[in-house]
Amino acid sequence: MTQLTGRPTIDDDVVHLTVPADGGYLGVLRTATAGLAARLQFALDEIEDLRIAVDEACAMLLAIATRDAELDCRFAVTDDALGVEVTVPTVRGATLPSESSFAWKVLTALTTDAAATASNGRATISLLSRRSSGW
Description:
- The chain is an alpha+beta fold.
- It has helices spanning 26-39, 44-62, 102-110, and strands at residues 14-20, 70-77, 81-89, 113-119, 122-130.
- It has a single domain (14-130), classed as Histidine kinase-like ATPase, C-terminal domain (Heat Shock Protein 90).
- The chain has a five-stranded antiparallel beta sheet, with helices on one face.
- InterPro entries: HATPase_C_sf (IPR036890).
Protein backbone atom coordinates (compact mmCIF):
# COMPACT_ATOMS: atom_id res chain seq x y z
CA MET A 1 0.00 0.00 0.00
CA THR A 2 1.15 3.50 -0.59
CA GLN A 3 0.92 6.35 1.86
CA LEU A 4 -0.24 8.59 -0.98
CA THR A 5 -3.25 6.63 -2.14
CA GLY A 6 -3.99 4.13 0.62
CA ARG A 7 -4.28 1.51 -2.13
CA PRO A 8 -1.91 -1.19 -3.34
CA THR A 9 0.33 -0.22 -6.20
CA ILE A 10 0.58 -2.26 -9.37
CA ASP A 11 3.48 -4.64 -8.63
CA ASP A 12 4.99 -2.10 -6.24
CA ASP A 13 4.90 0.44 -9.04
CA VAL A 14 6.83 3.28 -7.47
CA VAL A 15 9.23 5.60 -9.25
CA HIS A 16 11.68 7.59 -7.19
CA LEU A 17 13.61 10.52 -8.70
CA THR A 18 16.02 12.87 -7.03
CA VAL A 19 17.12 16.06 -8.78
CA PRO A 20 18.93 19.20 -7.65
CA ALA A 21 16.58 21.77 -6.11
CA ASP A 22 16.98 24.09 -9.06
CA GLY A 23 14.30 25.25 -11.48
CA GLY A 24 16.39 24.01 -14.40
CA TYR A 25 15.70 20.42 -13.37
CA LEU A 26 11.92 20.65 -13.03
CA GLY A 27 11.48 19.59 -16.64
CA VAL A 28 12.69 16.11 -15.63
CA LEU A 29 9.91 15.85 -13.05
CA ARG A 30 7.28 17.26 -15.42
CA THR A 31 8.29 14.73 -18.10
CA ALA A 32 8.21 11.82 -15.65
CA THR A 33 4.78 12.96 -14.46
CA ALA A 34 3.43 13.11 -18.01
CA GLY A 35 4.88 9.72 -18.92
CA LEU A 36 3.41 7.97 -15.90
CA ALA A 37 0.02 9.64 -16.31
CA ALA A 38 -0.03 8.64 -19.98
CA ARG A 39 0.73 5.07 -18.97
CA LEU A 40 -2.40 5.18 -16.81
CA GLN A 41 -4.33 6.44 -19.84
CA PHE A 42 -5.12 9.82 -18.34
CA ALA A 43 -6.76 12.21 -20.81
CA LEU A 44 -4.44 14.82 -22.33
CA ASP A 45 -5.95 17.65 -20.29
CA GLU A 46 -5.57 15.59 -17.08
CA ILE A 47 -1.90 14.98 -17.92
CA GLU A 48 -1.30 18.68 -18.46
CA ASP A 49 -3.12 19.57 -15.22
CA LEU A 50 -0.93 17.15 -13.28
CA ARG A 51 2.25 18.49 -14.92
CA ILE A 52 1.28 22.02 -13.90
CA ALA A 53 0.44 20.88 -10.35
CA VAL A 54 3.81 19.14 -9.95
CA ASP A 55 5.56 22.24 -11.28
CA GLU A 56 3.66 24.47 -8.84
CA ALA A 57 4.38 22.17 -5.88
CA CYS A 58 8.08 22.13 -6.75
CA ALA A 59 8.15 25.92 -7.09
CA MET A 60 6.70 26.22 -3.57
CA LEU A 61 9.38 23.91 -2.23
CA LEU A 62 12.24 25.57 -4.11
CA ALA A 63 11.36 28.85 -2.39
CA ILE A 64 12.12 27.34 1.03
CA ALA A 65 14.84 24.81 0.15
CA THR A 66 18.30 24.88 1.69
CA ARG A 67 21.25 25.78 -0.46
CA ASP A 68 22.47 22.81 -2.56
CA ALA A 69 19.35 20.81 -1.63
CA GLU A 70 17.83 18.03 -3.68
CA LEU A 71 14.17 17.54 -4.54
CA ASP A 72 13.13 14.01 -3.71
CA CYS A 73 10.13 12.98 -5.82
CA ARG A 74 8.19 9.75 -5.36
CA PHE A 75 5.52 8.66 -7.84
CA ALA A 76 3.11 5.90 -6.79
CA VAL A 77 1.04 4.28 -9.54
CA THR A 78 -2.22 2.42 -8.90
CA ASP A 79 -4.75 1.13 -11.39
CA ASP A 80 -6.57 4.49 -11.65
CA ALA A 81 -4.46 7.10 -9.86
CA LEU A 82 -1.05 8.70 -9.72
CA GLY A 83 0.29 9.96 -6.40
CA VAL A 84 3.23 12.34 -6.30
CA GLU A 85 5.18 13.23 -3.17
CA VAL A 86 7.89 15.89 -3.38
CA THR A 87 10.18 16.51 -0.40
CA VAL A 88 13.01 18.96 0.20
CA PRO A 89 15.17 20.01 3.18
CA THR A 90 14.15 23.51 4.25
CA VAL A 91 15.85 26.55 5.67
CA ARG A 92 15.26 27.25 9.34
CA GLY A 93 11.88 28.82 10.03
CA ALA A 94 10.54 28.10 6.54
CA THR A 95 6.79 27.86 6.05
CA LEU A 96 4.71 26.71 3.13
CA PRO A 97 2.09 29.01 1.58
CA SER A 98 -1.25 28.92 3.39
CA GLU A 99 -4.10 26.83 2.03
CA SER A 100 -5.90 30.06 1.11
CA SER A 101 -3.01 31.21 -1.13
CA PHE A 102 -3.24 31.28 -4.90
CA ALA A 103 -0.62 28.51 -5.18
CA TRP A 104 -2.77 26.16 -3.07
CA LYS A 105 -5.87 27.07 -5.05
CA VAL A 106 -3.99 25.99 -8.18
CA LEU A 107 -2.97 22.66 -6.61
CA THR A 108 -6.44 21.82 -5.38
CA ALA A 109 -8.05 22.82 -8.67
CA LEU A 110 -5.69 20.64 -10.72
CA THR A 111 -5.59 17.49 -8.58
CA THR A 112 -7.96 15.18 -6.73
CA ASP A 113 -6.17 15.91 -3.44
CA ALA A 114 -3.25 18.00 -2.24
CA ALA A 115 -1.62 18.12 1.19
CA ALA A 116 1.55 19.47 2.76
CA THR A 117 3.61 18.83 5.86
CA ALA A 118 6.69 20.50 7.27
CA SER A 119 8.67 19.12 10.19
CA ASN A 120 12.21 18.28 11.26
CA GLY A 121 13.72 20.57 8.63
CA ARG A 122 11.88 18.96 5.69
CA ALA A 123 8.77 19.94 3.75
CA THR A 124 6.64 17.58 1.68
CA ILE A 125 3.83 18.27 -0.75
CA SER A 126 1.65 15.30 -1.70
CA LEU A 127 -0.60 15.29 -4.74
CA LEU A 128 -3.10 12.69 -5.89
CA SER A 129 -4.81 12.60 -9.26
CA ARG A 130 -7.38 10.01 -10.22
CA ARG A 131 -8.15 9.25 -13.82
CA SER A 132 -11.64 10.55 -14.56
CA SER A 133 -12.32 8.42 -17.59
CA GLY A 134 -12.93 4.71 -17.09
CA TRP A 135 -11.18 1.95 -18.97
